Amino acid sequence: MIRIDGKQIAADIKAECREQADALTARGVTPCLAVIQVGNDPASTVYVGNKKKACAACNIKSLAYELPEETPEAELLALIETLNADASVHGILVQLPLPRHISEKKVLKTISPLKDVDGFHEQNVGALVTGSDGFVSCTPAGIIELLKRSGVQMDGKNAVVCGRSNIVGKPMALLLLRENATVTVCHSHTADLRAVTKQADILIAAIGKPKFFNSSYVKEGAAVIDVGIHRMENGKLCGDLDYDDVAPHTSAITPVPGGVGPMTIAMLMHNCIRAAQLSAGE
What we know:
single chain; three-stranded parallel sheet; Rossmann fold
């Protein structure tokens, strides 16, 4: 059984990003990511801090815009348009969730698809569906890298994605299809979930329920990726899998923490470098 080390693979990707950033900077293009946070949600503040640290580690310039909770929607949209027009800014990220008076859909549509390093703009989602070039949502893109760099074959395998969110489940299914896996997407209305997941050579758990999947859901020798992250009453973190019960039955598995989590930010850095390369005509 391989315990997939997301921290190490993320570190490898960041090292690659740093090399590419240095090459761009030497040509007069300094990769730059603008991060906008509205309000002071504690989890968002932690995520934004982690993104700033990752930028520093990858030699990517970061701009931070910390706006008060009551910021009008029009003011946020105007800031995004200003950043869209600024050629020195290559990536724009608006930290979610947003306050209730601001339309998430409107905000995501306002970010230029060429600077949408989160991969949430409808144009980039459409590019993923049609197999065209575009930015891919960071968590599913990171999962593909985890599988590839851990030697897990996807071509011809049965992959089951549990979860159908726009951020993870749907793009995950499309990326697995791109790798020639046969893909099933499960959700809260799936009849006999256990019977479906037991067929999976690759199981992606992204339903947001702590320790939901035990070994009875897992095919012997499957590769299992845990996207969930939850804090238990004892303060420890766990995922959607009952790790101790599931792990002995797998060929490869991601822990929580230290599995998928570090990859999300690593792929954000990757997307930001790609955006800078595209702006430089590469």
